[in-house]
Hints:
The chain is of the alpha/beta class.
Amino acid sequence: MLEGCVDWPRETADRYRKLGLWEGRTLGDELRRWAVEYRDRVALVSGERRVTYRELDAWVDRVAAGLRARGIARDDRVVVQLPNACEFVVLCFALYRLGALPVFSLPAHRANEITYLCRHAEAVAYVVPDTHHGFDYRTLAGTVKAEVPSVREVFVVGDPGPYTPFAALSAPQDGPADAGGPEDGPEPHDVAFFLLSGGTTALPKLIPRTHDDYAYQTRVSAEICGVDETCVYLAVLPLPFNFTWGCPGVLGVLGAGGRVVLASGTDPEECFALIEAERVTLTSVVPTIAHMWLDGREWIDRDLSSLRTLQIGSAKLHPEVARRIEPSFDCALQQVFGMAEGLLCMTRSTDDPETVVTTQGRPISPEDELRVVDPQGRPVPVGETGELLTRGPYTLRGYYRAPEHNATAFDEDGFYRTGDLVRMTGQGGVVVEGRVKDVIVRGGDKVSATEVERHVSAHPRVRQAAVIPVTDPVLGERVCACVIPAADGAPSLKELKTFLSSRGVADFKLPERLVLLDSFPLTGLNKVDKKRLRADVGESRG
Ligand code: OOB
């Protein structure tokens, strides 16, 4: 396995193979099979563009050849920061075929995140759009390239500026037209790509996902969702989210011969129009978007009768909201509790309505192992709340190049500590009750409090900072910075945001509330008592 990654123990891996969970095919080979089977069916729709399975397969081969001609090889890391467009899908499969490793970043990431990712992964290439939502990614690429010497190539979808056009990759190459035969391609057990963790640490962690494990996750979740060739999936959330890419998402739907429609945004007008026009049957959103769509249903007159299932996950969906989904959309609700690290829980179409509304589902694999433990690590009885630990055939055994963090993020049996507080129901369902990790869930976006604290603390007029979530009716939670000012007075919220932006911090992490304090409440161990801080701040109007 790739240097810096932690493998499953051999006997565990053998068991997953023997059970037929890991089928021993790479994601690049999978696409080849799908193209043979589904040929001229439409695989991808993006704006005016419609791409069949065969066209997709051929396009992927051309891009793989183009990448190879530019020296991108097996095990090379490539940071991918593209919006929802066909090129994202094509690039990832091309990299999968070469055995080069996409590192999924989000369009919202800025210099702070991207330089870190490129440096940590020693990326050789970085792929961006020219501009998106008014932001010029070529300028960002300039910063990244100047700071991270390993980044040799920047590929740009659209107007390339000083860089290589992505389109040039699919032009006929000089020399042998070889996209990499099976003899030098990746093995099914190899890492296929990296997802980003929601993160509790000051810097995001990289999650290695193997061909075997991801193929399994997408196949099983597609089965559970009843995905077949009549499925039309609307990718609303960013493609680099595990939820959108593989739960069952893009990969699960392509594997069944369905059609993937790419949305460029989340607003109900655009999405409802697409659902009507493409007869979408399945889509996945976060609770904040579900709220917007429920409201949109009141005034947007579109025919959504094709929708069979609306998946909602990534943040807690409250039962009151959950109850409104089926009547309003006349489709089934499916709750999804998942994580980029692996474990995926889903409610089933056969569950009774109360289970669908009040639980976050149950694990998708019989080989998923779940433990719910108290703070001392002792199992709690069913029905009681504790921290969820898990291991299984598609849950990581270690973050990439993070031995110190891995030492505490996993227990001695290889169980991943999710940081989520859950309660199990008698039927094996999971109910998410809260979290012990220092993460703010803003909409579906995960913000590491520690990371934001690091940046806020760097402000010259901040003596000490603690970052906490504050409850919000729209987003669920927002980021609140609690600050003990330096002697010469505190920055305003606006100044703080400008300061963080100038450090290249992504917008969704910026504090939306600032509370000035003389001191922080402390725990017995002299750490900031965030629980009390949250209670104090919640009561104040700050
Ligand atoms: C998904 O993945 P991540 O990696 O962005 O975030 C994982 C964390 C979980 O540990 C949990 O804290 C929270 O997001 N979460 C939920 C939830 N689904 C995720 N909290 C409450 N209720 C839910 N239904 O968010 C993700 C990955 C795959 C599928 C769906 C979501």
